[in-house]
Amino acid sequence: METIIFSQKVAEDLGSYIKQLGYSRLGIITDSNTKVHCYPKLGQSLPEHVHFSFEAGESNKNLTTCTSIWQWMTDEGFDRKALIINLGGGVTGDMGGFCAATYKRGIRFINVPTTLLSQVDASVGGKLGIDFNGFKNHIGVFTQPEAVFISDLFLETLSEVELRSGYAEVIKHGLIKSKSYFDCLRTEGWQNQDWRGITERSVQIKKEVVEKDPKESGLRKILNFGHTIGHAFESYYLNTEKHLLHGEAIAVGMLCEAYLSNQKSGLPAQELAIIVEKILGIFGKFEFPEDHISGICDLCSQDKKNEGDKINFSLLRELGNCDFNIPVNKEEIQQAIIYYKSL
Ligand SMILES: NC(=O)c1ccc[n+]([C@@H]2O[C@H](COP(=O)([O-])OP(=O)(O)OC[C@H]3O[C@@H](n4cnc5c(N)ncnc54)[C@H](O)[C@@H]3O)[C@@H](O)[C@H]2O)c1
Ligand SMILES: O=C(O)C(=O)C[C@@H](O)[C@H](O)[C@H](O)COP(=O)(O)O
Ligand SMILES: [Zn+2]
């Protein structure tokens, strides 16, 4: 598994790490926002390198942007000893990592996550990929980064909605693996957190799961709680005026899937009520017309946990415990979305 370094002097620590690692050429990938807000924070500490930046946003996590990245690597003459640093959120990490892991069958990369979401979740565990024809992360590979450098210094410039989006994955970690973590989150107001402490605890949970099942043959599916329906919402509204951030979509998905957990995997009604209160209290309700429901349901058919026609969910047994490979039919999914709408 990758080395994870929590650092307060990230520029210096990253500089020394890559020096001892050795490489032929160094390339940094940012998006248009991290180029402005995060790249300058690495300052002069990085040795000679080349830099590629793409237009920020989920709608650019696609093959067209990958083509530009691979072209840049080719034009710069990167060989197999070249090293990439992905400086940005989950979009930069997923796509920059995917491009590195496939260029000349794989060159090394380091993640420097700059959003809460990527610090607590996306930068760790080696799931890389891009969206394809509107389907989330449809094309990708599992390849671990060499290292991940996490610093809350980057969070200073992050907007509140982006911070909140990351908080959805934090809640997910408590719900699937640690009731005591979820209880701590319940008692705190979400905005003024000890982000370093939160990140360490979330990364610990993610790391423990990924170490046991790096390629998602079983247990790792619990990290996907909220994502079967959440990704369907995210995909359905991508490139529309109602588009949802990843964490916002996962918040909707977790509520639908908490309902299914109550129906199908034993989550007690009072625990469902606690989850609803917590998540709605932070994210509010996402409003959408009833005639969108069947289109959203249909998107669940492309989920990567499915086997043939069987749509498999990861559902909670209780707070802090999650089961996986639970088949749910389209009618039940529809009911879950109707339940969400009724809240
Ligand atoms: N691989 C995984 O395990 C995994 C896990 C969770 C999510 N994801 C993926 O991650 C993506 C979501 O990640 P995200 O929320 O980080 O999105 P993102 O990368 O789009 O970043 C969110 C926004 O914040 C901006 N930004 C980033 N850092 C900033 C900073 N420090 N200051 C100011 N602005 C900054 C970005 O430019 C962007 O506009 C989705 O594509 C999701 O599917 C992957
Ligand atoms: O690391 C994992 O495994 C996860 O499922 C973490 C999720 O938060 C993340 O959004 C992941 O990219 C979803 O993966 P996918 O296989 O459903 O595309
Ligand atoms: Zn996620």
From TrEMBL:
**Occurrences of domain 3-dehydroquinate synthase C-terminal (ranges):** 166-306
Protein name (record): 3-dehydroquinate synthase
Q: Which cofactor does it need?
A: Co(2+); NAD(+); Zn(2+)
Give the record's GO CC terms: cytoplasm
Domain called 3-dehydroquinate synthase N-terminal: residue spans? 53-164
> Into which family does the record put it?
Belongs to the sugar phosphate cyclases superfamily. Dehydroquinate synthase family.
Q: Pfam families given for it?
A: DHQ_synthase, DHQS_C
Q: What does this protein do?
A: Catalyzes the conversion of 3-deoxy-D-arabino-heptulosonate 7-phosphate (DAHP) to dehydroquinate (DHQ).
Q: Which GO terms describe its biological process?
A: amino acid biosynthetic process; aromatic amino acid family biosynthetic process; chorismate biosynthetic process
Taxonomically, what lineage is the organism? Bacteria, Pseudomonadati, Bacteroidota, Cytophagia, Cytophagales
Q: Which superkingdom heads the taxonomic lineage of this protein's source?
A: Bacteria
Keywords on record: Amino-acid biosynthesis, Aromatic amino acid biosynthesis, Cobalt, Cytoplasm, Lyase, Metal-binding, NAD, Nucleotide-binding, Zinc
Which PANTHER family has this protein been placed in? 3-DEHYDROQUINATE SYNTHASE, 3-DEHYDROQUINATE SYNTHASE, CHLOROPLASTIC
The pathway entry for this protein reads as:
Metabolic intermediate biosynthesis; chorismate biosynthesis; chorismate from D-erythrose 4-phosphate and phosphoenolpyruvate: step 2/7
Q: What is its EC number?
A: 4.2.3.4
Subcellular location, record wording: Cytoplasm
Q: Which GO terms describe its molecular function?
A: 3-dehydroquinate synthase activity; metal ion binding; nucleotide binding
Which EC class does it fall in? lyase
Catalysed reactions, semicolon-separated = 7-phospho-2-dehydro-3-deoxy-D-arabino-heptonate = 3-dehydroquinate + phosphate
